[in-house]
Write a structure and sequence with these properties.
It contains nine helices and five strands, in the order βαααααβαβαβαβα. The chain is α/β, with parallel strands linked by helices. The chain has two domains: 130 residues, Rossmann fold; 64 residues, Putative phosphatase, domain 2 (DNA polymerase, domain 1, Orthogonal Bundle). It has a five-stranded parallel beta sheet, with helices on both faces.
């Protein structure tokens, strides 16, 4: 790890506490269909992919979702269920990001959508008085603003090229194995963050701290 100069972090499940089962459970309370047939951590239908790539507005997404799950209630119920997965950002993880940025070039690369960005930025400000994640990284990349998403290799190659990063000098940390494999296929040193392990502890284990 002596040659590592760059760290690319995932957001949900690495920096933000994430519980996708909360969203699945909330949708299963209001939907006539099993939400896991449409959305899990491992895979999702094309509607979600398009939203992640910024190819649908929130209104278009929720209207499409209404049809997909055969939902007849108020849109606010869907919005609440969709955002239920977003939990808190522990202070210690922000401290890790500060420390990492002092020693490496750091980047945030997240599959996300405008609906989620609005909520987690609001939560970040409420919890920590910080408007967004921009100050914690050299650059922040959200899939919905790039028209690309993980695990497609093009999104990793874009980040590498735009910042003149050498893959062998770069590590990527994510909580989804398919994303780790996608980054690894680009030559990036890629690590799956184990469940119940802190990202700071993984960086220490890798001897990067």
């Amino acid at each position: 790890m002596k040659n590592i100069k760059n760290i690319i972090f995932d957001l949900g499940g690495v920096i933000i506490n994430l519980d996708i089962l909360k969203t699945i459970d909330e949708f299963n309370k209001i939907s006539r269909k099993n939400f896991q047939d449409f959305y899990t951590q491992a895979e999702q239908t094309e509607l979600f992919n398009l939203f992640d790539k910024g190819q649908l507005t929130p209104d278009e997404f929720f209207e499409g979702l209404r049809k997909e799950i055969n939902f007849t209630g108020h849109e606010d119920e869907m919005i609440f269920a969709w955002n239920a997965m977003l939990l808190n950002v522990p202070e210690k993880r922000l401290d890790v990001l500060v420390k990492a940025k002092q020693q490496y070039n750091t980047y945030l690369l997240s599959n996300t959508n405008e609906a989620h960005i609005a909520v987690f930025e609001k939560n970040l400000y409420r919890e920590h008085g910080v408007k967004n994640f921009e100050d914690y990284f050299d650059k922040v990349y959200y899939s919905c603003r790039m028209n690309m998403r993980k695990p497609d290799q093009e999104i990793f190659e874009f980040v590498l090229k735009e910042n003149d990063l050498i893959p062998s000098e770069t590590i990527f940390i994510d909580d989804s194995i398919q994303h780790v494999k996608g980054a690894g296929a680009c030559g990036i040193n890629s690590y799956l963050l184990p469940k119940n392990m802190e990202v700071g502890d993984l960086l220490t284990e890798l001897k990067l701290f």
